[in-house]
Amino acid sequence: MTSTHTYCAPNIGAVVAVLVSPNEQVDTNQPLVIIEAMKMQTTLCAEVSGKVGQVYVSLDDECFVGMPLVDIHADGVSETKPKKVPVTQNTNQTLLHELRVRAALTLDEQRVEQHQKRQLKGYLSARENLQNLCSEDSFMEYGQMAVAAQRLRRDYDELKTATAADGVITGVGQINQGLVAEQNTQTAIVINDYSVLAGTQGYFHHLKLDRILAIAAAKKFPVVMFTEGGGGRPGDTDITTVNSGLQCQSFATWASLQGKVPRISVANGYCFAGNAALFGAADITIATQSSWIGMAGPAMIEGGGLGVVKPTDIGPSDKQVKNGVIDILVENEQQAAEMAKKCLLYFQGPLVDEQQITFADQETLNQVLPEDRRFVYDVKEIIHTLADTDSFTEIKALFGASIITGFIHLQGHPVGVLASNCKVLGGAIDVEAGEKSSQFMQLCQQFSIPVVVLCDTPGFMVGPEHEDRGAVRRLSQLFVAGSQLTVPLVAVVLRKCYGLGAQALLGGNTSQPSYTIAWPTGEFGAMGLEGAVKLGFKKELAAEQDLTARKALYEQLLAAQYQKGQAQEVASVLEIDAVIEPANTRQTLLLALNIVQ
What we know:
Layout: E1 4-8, E2 13-18, E3 25-26, E4 31-37, E5 40-45, E6 50-55, E7 62-63, E8 68-74, H1 90-104, H2 112-121, H3 126-133, E9 140-142, H4 156-162, E10 168-174, E11 186-192, H5 203-219, E12 223-226, H6 250-256, E13 263-272, H7 274-280, E14 284-294, H8 298-303, H9 317-320, E15 328-330, H10 333-345, H11 379-386, E16 393-395, E17 403-410, E18 413-420, H12 431-446, E19 451-457, H13 464-468, H14 471-483, E20 489-498, H15 499-505, E21 515-518, E22 523-525, H16 529-536, H17 538-543, H18 547-564, H19 567-572, E23 578-579, H20 585-592
Parallel strand pairs: 11-12, 12-13, 13-14, 14-15, 18-19, 19-20, 20-21, 20-22, 21-23
Antiparallel strand pairs: 1-8, 2-4, 2-7, 3-6, 4-5, 6-8, 9-10, 10-11, 16-17, 17-18
Helix pairs in contact: 12-14, 16-18
């Protein structure tokens, strides 16, 4: 028995082809009618084999949804719709092949000469740096097909590989995936490529940078940026409407992300002019030992009439780490990528696997301080003991070294640490240490990271020479930063807590922290004990003519002042909250910071 199948229009449109006639024998999947709407064509095919009955439409007829088009009287040979065999589309396959070839031109395998030059210098390629940050399958690249805006002066096919991605890889990748409790580890990534026109910043280069920074701002993604490069590029001739180039948005956009998303920059090799501006504006700056960082490169210096200099004379890393330009100095790019990932961890929330957390024997803290209060000790030993194993990362180690700043994990939770370093200036806070500390407090405040202060300071550094360096202006900022802290602040007085410097380090006063504690060795006063005795008892000491007797009187007065400012006595009048055994410090910090074990 024969059945009739009527094929109707699936959408509105115009008939652009009628491919069968009445009484014509058709096979399954044979095209019948083609309808076009909005420049897109739909082909109706036979679902059964049989003979064409009535054809209801002609060429150029207008169709509406459900309108009959063709009848087919099935012959019963194939009443079921067979599986369609994919038809090779030569055009599509050609385009797919062309895409693969084009993408390959941006990769190291096709850029052999450029890759070898990097290897000869002992450097990694931009793509290798990317691989060290995140897995390839987690990275979404933006603007891979870009080339330098130089098509008017260079062969386009040459530009595709010689200026691959216009000298900067941008995209979003997963960094530290699986390590932190937060599910979203998406990070905006920028890798400047020195093998493209010396890493200079061209027209499309900046557009790519602007695009990924806008994504980071909108999605609240942290940013890791490798900044190697020579600054602005004068050779982009395609953009004829740009004169000065000063309308570029990249620098303002990058700076505007401060306090909104964490930004980590990495320098290697030459990092000059615009690249250096991007590097220096980051929240955390990491550089390799083979780095030279300066706001102007050799060409700009010479062009300004300031003489001829070698690039290696401009901002070498051993100098930039001492003046605070570089926060963390590492040996090479591999270590730089690892350090960038470690630093990013402190901004990504608690670690996911608290069961794997280990820490040192806390009982060692009961013997860590020397018996003589005049002797120095290594406060880093205390930091490492309190922190989760291998979790401490110091920031600006060689700048303002009388205060140590850095991050740790406590039971997997990120915490900022400021610690007096009595090995440098006896722990006195000079202008560099004050500036470093105030900036670090602001960074922790911006990203809701609690702060722990380990205090052992005689106060601010004093003297005419120090005042000549703007001590009043620069050190006062430490009070400003401390007063604006709303994140948890816990202060631990290890030994000395004297004067304005101690007040500033504690956020303004001993009541500013949410919990202020001291070890039994803690000592407090408006100024150093020795100075307080010499100043406060000047007449009494001067009245004693015998030098031996004067020294004995001095020691007696000093002992009295020490007893008065001892931690337990200060706690008895509620100037601090508690005195604890050193071995209980970690547990106390966990309680004070409300970190659940």
